[in-house]
Amino acid sequence: MKKLMAMVAGCILSLGAMAQVYNSKVQPQGKSDRYCAILKDGRMVMTADGRDLVMDVMLENGIRIKTNGSLMDKEGKERFLNNGECVDKEGNSVKPVAPEDKTKKEIERRSDKTDIEK
User: What mean pLDDT comes out for the span 55-78?
Assistant: First the structure.
């Protein structure tokens, strides 16, 4: 009976250890439409939907987007993105979304107010 209890306890403990081994640093599927490389505090980081990636992302076509701003294809070839460069969910380069010029908007808003006053 003691042997049986020891075997059951061993199985339960080993299942917990195997579950922890599966936890890798790769997200299974990319869910964002766009991933961009941005230079922050002197190092390149990847962002998706305005948030920094905390782990690598595996796209459906096998391309891995790494948190350091690089892409790795199925064959293992690595390509580094430049600051501001973005890729879509297929791994193709896309035009980065330019931040709106706040000063231009402010000037337009002010000119609209002066037109109303006249």
Answer: 91
State the Cα–Cα distance between residues 30 and 65, nearest whole angstrom.
9
Q: How far apart are CA 90 and CA 74, in angstroms?
A: 13
The residues spanned by each domain of the chain are 25-94
Over the chain, what HEC string results? Answer: CHHHHHHHHHHHHHHHHHHHHHCCCEECCCCCCEEEEEEECCEEEEEECCEECCCEEECCCCCEECCCCEEECCCCCEEECCCCCEEECCCCEECCCCCCCHHHHHHHHHHHHHHHHC
- Which residue type occupies 53? L
For the stretch 83-96, pLDDT in tens is 999 999 888 888 77
